[in-house]
Amino acid sequence: MTQLWGVLMAGGSGTRFWPESRGARPKQLLPLGGATPLLARTSERLGELIPPEQQMVITSARTVDAVRDLLPEIPAEQVIGEPEGRDTAPCLGLAGALLSKLAPDATAVAMPSDHLIEPEPLFREHLDAARVVLKERPEAVLVFGIEPDHAATGYGWLRCGARVDSKSPKPVHALDAFLEKPERAAAEQLLAAGGHLWNAGLFAFRPDGLRAAFDVHLPEMGAALDRIAASYGSKQFTSTLRADFPTLTKISIDFGVMEKLAGALVMPLPVQWDDVGAWGALARLTAPDAEGNSVSGEAVLQDAKRCLVSSRGGVVAVRGVDDLIVVHTPDASLVCRRNDEQGVKQIVDELRARGLEQYL
Fold it and tell me: What are the structural domain ranges in the chain?
């Protein structure tokens, strides 16, 4: 059986978790919903199926040292720092190009590093099943879809086609379509219709199969990826990466490849999944008190209901208010309405526009 490798995508900035999430300490390095940082939980989730020596982390150049410190069992040369963020297509293109040197016959599973998935043994069973599928169809790219339990409007959806004949112990289907984040009524229709899954950004591929897809749909990336891969393991790698990676088209793997790819596959994942997308996740990850408040850190709440409070480097006192998000860090604080959690990104944009980079 071919080796199974994990590609942990850890280049995001997590702006919706400001002020806790910063450029040097982004969301994936935070212990949200537990004592262990999300990236470390993602690595540990792979268990013995994909040990650390068969893991690669694609992160930002700014956080390479922090990731290596957090995950010392992953070989240092397998923690790669992007000189600048170019979205998921260049990230996976880079991972595939490097794996073509490290483990050309491997099956890779690529995943965001800031999600929560349970039960973990069931998750691993599906990763192993994807290896079976891609041994049979090495040219294919497979996307995992989360089986939905409500009509979510914050995620893209996947439409399953006919079931594919395979020796895989888990069902796999042709991928009919990627669907953009739907309005409420459309999401309810997708849920009721069945055969639709949430797109969680989880993929499986063989290095040659992914490169063939890039050669068809993003051929302009090929030469730069080849130069980077050719320098891997040499003294020229860092300088080549810095020179060539920023030239890659900034585009997601969905838009750049998967939505156009013939023969793509989808495997349903019947797991509990949370993308920990914004501060509202605290309500799902911490047990609320009798008034519906969710608290992380030191806080005093009086006559407050349905508030989300996070405190680091001090105590937060909240009195006589409802439905607020209150986050305190040693140098910055956030207060906003609970139903406006997505607007935190706009605060980050304004801080940057005002030149207040020291707070980002």
Answer: 4-274, 279-359
Topology of domain 4-274 in CATH is Spore Coat Polysaccharide Biosynthesis Protein SpsA; Chain A (3.90.550)
Angle at 88 between CA 85 and CA 91, to 5 degrees: 70
**Cα–Cα distance, 29 to 14 (Å, whole number):** 10
* Model confidence at 236: pLDDT above 90: yes
Residue from 134, 137, 83 nearest 110 by CA: 134
Q: Is the dihedral angle over the CA atoms 239, 240, 243, 245 positive or is it negative?
A: negative
Mean per-residue pLDDT for 302-309?
A: 97
Across 222-237, average pLDDT:
97
CB 135 within 8 A of CB 2: yes
- CB 148 within 8 Å of CB 200: no
The answer to whether 200 touches 270, Cβ cutoff 8 Å, is no
Residue type, 223: A
Is 357 exposed, middle or buried (CB count within 10 Å of its CB: 0-12, 13-18, 19+)? exposed
- List the one residue out of 36, 207, 251 whose CA is nearest residue 106: 207
Neighbouring-strand partners of residue 308:
294, 325
- Joined tokens for residue 248: 């890659």
Q: Is the pLDDT of residue 219 over 80?
A: yes
